[in-house]
Predict the 3D structure of the following.
Amino acid sequence: MIPHYGKVCLALHLSEQKVEELNRIANEIRRLVLVTVHKAGAGHTGGALSIPELLSVLYFDAMKIDPSRPDWLERDRFILSKGHASVALYAALCLRGYFGRECMCEFDRIDGRLQGHPDMLKTPGVDMSTGSLGQGLSAGIGMAIGRDRRGLDFTVYVLLGDGELQEGQVWEAAMYAGVHRIRKLIAIVDYNQLQLTGWTKDTLDIEPLADKWRAFGWDVLECDGHNVAEISETVEKAKAIESRPVVIIAHTLKGKGVSFIAGSVSWHAKAPTTEELEKAIEELGECEW
Amino acid sequence: MVKVGDMIAPRKAFGEALVELGKVNPDVLVLDADVGTSTQSSIFREAFPDRFYQVGIAEQNMIGIAAGLATMGFIPFVSTFAVFAARRAADQVAISVAYPNLNVKINGSYGGVPTGKAGATHQAFEDIAIMRAIPNIKVFVPADAVETRQVVFAAAEIDGPVYIRTVRCEVPVIFDEGYKFTVGRAVQLTEGRDVALISTGMMTYKALDAVKALKEKGISARLIHMPSIKPIDEDAIVAAASEIGKIVTIENHSIIGGLGGAVAEVLAERSPAKIRRIGFRDHFGESGDDEKVFSKYGVNTEHIIAAAVEMAAL
């Protein structure tokens, strides 16, 4: 269930064709996530399925990147602070051309380049190692400060989970970035409402979320985290705000795209069986490869 | 001009060395969590205000920001009390810095007993153990002002995380200015045959005093100063074990996991020998004059002498 929220006014700048492409990619990310987690017999399915549209827009529309030069100094940076959704990031990187599809079978495998949680030393395209929740935003601030010291021009994106916002370090970082008006730093909250043991609101409610970020000196935007046109518009709007950090609260559904996974707490870290995978793929539609 | 015997606080030497380093390396930045006047990183702020970041009382965020700066090719030195660097921000040090092997230098100031009587909450007795157990981090514990300066410059030459432990109190300078610190290398300060003393950090000056007292008692002690706890100089330890066979370790830290632990590990695997560890024995400290705390907990010169006499008699 996607809750009601204040809708941003959208002047659609994406062509219908682009919207279709980004949706197709999001769907491909989902299929790749499910197949990969199934093969590995491990992975965080639910939280990976809530972010494919966000990743699709970032990696195939918004971000200034070059897959042939993952270390390009002037690239936009992306930090998956909710590192347990690594498999979705790997799927996006794979589809964007950072590595071949055959690499996906290295996920969670001994000697593999695709660790359970992102490892910047092992995986091309991973800008920061994460996995212990709450740490990504601080590193993002450091990258943004470093960028300005070097006189470079790029944007730093940090994707956080909603449950992750219960970590104190997130608010240390939020306070610092707000006070110092760290520019071109965009935090995105994957507000899928579920965490490992239950609903976020029952575990430790993070509301009023927008007010919290505003109080810390951030500009706050909200969007439907599964609507690529809306995400794209919101990201563009965020990029245009040069005076202070911006957070995008993306309303999402954990396990989105597969009926029996969506909104289910039991799929936080569960791999689908062969039967479940077949059912899931059938629901998602035809695979292109 | 620093002379042997001068009383200088290593924390002050640390701050001054940062300035010296900052002059020759523009990539050096310093981050503080509101203890800069205590750790003396404030000396750097005065010299390079635009390269000094005050993050407030938020050590975890400070470590993360440093990690991000390191990805941009800077050499951030984060400085706070050892208890906060090693305890409060341990996970950030491990995951945001050590795991990705980022070029962040961490200064744990106020190591061990001397904290201006702040007591147990501010006395780090486990920081060396924690830092030593985290992969990729090198751990240096300099003895005096001269060595502290050397360690700061050596840390900047290393591409990867380094933990530098400094102390608050004034400590006599034991090295002349020609001294050169080498990563992974012990420094033999005296030669002896009856017992081998292995000390680190500020305890080395106390060990030197002990060696003099032991000489008067007719006991000749080899004193090995161990500024590099990780990597540790295994060969110096093994040589002491095989040539003398009786070892006393001395540290301003818990005997669990610190210098004593590290030396015992090397001995157990490579060259078993008799060992006595002088340090804090699994308890918290307390407020009081530094010397009185050292004495109460059995970590002072007289305890080194007693342990060495006992070992030499074996």
Q: What stands out?
A: Chain B touches chain A through 29 residues (CB under 8 Å). Chain B has a mean pLDDT of 98. Chain B has 13 helices and 14 strands. Chain B has two domains: 7-172, 187-313.
